[in-house]
Amino acid sequence: MAARLNTPLHNALSLLNPFNTPLSTKPFSSRNSFRYSKKLASSQSSSGKRALYCTSSLGIHENGVDGAEKFVLTTPLYYVNAPPHMGSAYTTIAADSIARFQRLLGKKVIFITGTDEHGEKIATSAAANGRNPAEHCDLISQSYRTLWKELDIAYDKFIRTTDPKHEAIVKEFYARVYANGDIYRADYEGLYCVNCEEYKDEKELLENNCCPVHQMPCVARKEDNYFFALSKYQKPLEEILSQNPRFVQPSYRLNEVQSWIKSGLRDFSISRALVDWGIPVPDDEKQTIYVWFDALLGYISALTEDNEQQSLETAVSLGWPASLHLIGKDILRFHAVYWPAMLMSAGLNLPKAVFGHGFLTKDGMKMGKSLGNTLEPFELVQKFGPDAVRYFFLREVEFGNDGDYSEDRFIKIVNAHLANTIGNLLNRTLGLLKKNCESTLVVDSTIAAEGIPLKDTVEKLVEKARTNYENLSLSSACEAVLEIGNAGNSYMDQRAPWLLFKQGGVSAEAAAKDLVIILEVMRIIAVALSPVAPCLSLRIYSQLGYSVDQFKSITWNDTKWGGLNGGQVMAQASPVFARIELNPEKNEEEKKPKDSKKTGKSKVKVEQPQTLAEA
């Protein structure tokens, strides 16, 4: 097949990369299902420097203009072919918890999320629903924003790949990579997965050429496309992972990435001739830029403001590189292989870390509409509230691994941990304080805890929680906070202040101090749990007599013992987290013959606690 040389210079000569890397241009090897012919559009060799990358762990970050350390965190840009699902919600809940923790540490956090809105699959989905692509994208993108509000997601930037500022950044980035000699034009033939929007290698396909991710047959396609010279970056990527093994986390994800690279990297197509809904290739309106070469740039374009002059240099200066890309394991290859190579080609720093978490199942089975067992996030949060949803998935799923949801387990966990261990302890203590001390603390918590081992126990558990948050061990962080609650309950049961009050005199004085100690435990729990369950933490803080503004200004330093002062007046006791009760009719219904027309879904009743203040 004759090679076809792309002649336009794409107006890129003024954007020559100052970090050119003289690497091998060895192409990917020919396979039966892939035929290609190529000629580099331009070639440059110099002794320039390779793009910089960070060899630090997550604890080291760039400083902002105000002196605060920056922490730039991203979720994937979610594909808008369909409304948000629980997998997307899980990633974003985790990211929000990490962002909230980093804010408690005093970091200048930029939490980026958004929607990926180009590609064949979106155009097809829009047509199937009787909408044009732009209308479809507006509708689905808004559904993500709505769900994030329902889940108390406090993002800083929401980028849409249909935003004009994003298109400007993508085109400039494309020009840089082109000027560096890493884009060429070639005829391409292969097996294409429409759902993945990716050409597949025959060796990774299942029987009947089915995609292993979507279980659907791939289709044969032949296109005239532009390619990115990924093979050129084989050795640099190997070196990065060798020198900085924390670049990909958890460690078993690193092993996957190293295996992919070791098997040999092949150049990949970065344009589509048969897709109209996308960003046009510069100087070639007949082609659109491949969705991944487009969407990954959203992490950079999101940093700019709408009213700013859009340039790659400006965007990078506002926060790049990212401290952490948080993604599902199914898109690890794009973030840990394609993206770093693209950044090196453009002379930009690499993100500091990529974390690939696992999948969610329901009742031990993979979720799917065909199985009728999907888990709808809107329904879940409306049924149980954001605190319960956030806590369950972060506490019960070891971050990085696959995790399972069952309604029975969900109800059992949130009732035991949030309603009983935490909520009931606060309610009991405030009730005793009102009855015996007119809701007023008799002494500072520092004085009350003198010589009390519980104080040392709590301090150790706070440090344990912090370490786990920092290491992205979110389940263990939740467990450490729950242990603080368990310690408080044990102290309450051992001391039995209700009996001491009845004895009067010195015993009653000791009981009053005990209540101060337990309420200080509750105050610390409110701070330490706030990254995971912010609304619950606010309700706890409010009942301890603090205002919403005081809650919003807390830092991790507020987990230190000694926050409560003598004379402080507590609020009226009210359940901060009501138990989720199974419908009492459920058991009776289960005894009756099943009606085939009924869905069989269990009913639950949630008595929402009184809202003291909005988060």
Provide an overview of this structure.
43% of the residues lie in helices and 15% in strands. The protein is α/β, with parallel strands linked by helices. It has a domain at 413-569: Isoleucyl-tRNA Synthetase, Domain 1 (Orthogonal Bundle). The strands form five sheets. A six-stranded parallel sheet has the order 4-3-2-13-14-8, sandwiched between helices. The longest helix is centred in the C-terminal third of the chain and has 31 residues, at 407-437. The chain is elongated, with a radius of gyration of 28 Å. Mean pLDDT is 85; it is low at 1-61, 594-603 and 607-615. It catalyses: tRNA(Met) + L-methionine + ATP = L-methionyl-tRNA(Met) + AMP + diphosphate. Residues 453-582 form the Methionyl-tRNA synthetase anticodon-binding domain. It is an enzyme of class 6 (ligase).
What order do the helices and strands come in, and which of them pair?
Blueprint: E1 35-40, E2 70-79, H1 86-104, E3 108-116, H2 120-128, H3 133-150, E4 157-160, H4 164-179, E5 183-193, E6 198-200, E7 219-228, H5 234-243, E8 248-249, H6 251-262, E9 268-269, E10 271-272, E11 280-281, E12 284-289, H7 291-295, H8 298-301, H9 312-317, E13 324-328, H10 332-346, E14 354-357, E15 360-362, E16 365-366, H11 377-384, H12 386-396, E17 403-405, H13 407-437, H14 445-448, H15 453-470, H16 474-495, H17 497-503, H18 505-529, H19 534-543, H20 548-552, E18 580-582, H21 585-591, E19 604-606
Parallel strand pairs: 2-3, 2-13, 3-4, 8-14, 13-14, 15-17
Antiparallel strand pairs: 1-5, 5-6, 5-7, 7-9, 10-12, 11-12, 15-16, 18-19
Organism: Eutrema salsugineum (Saltwater cress)
Enzyme class: ligase
EC number: 6.1.1.10
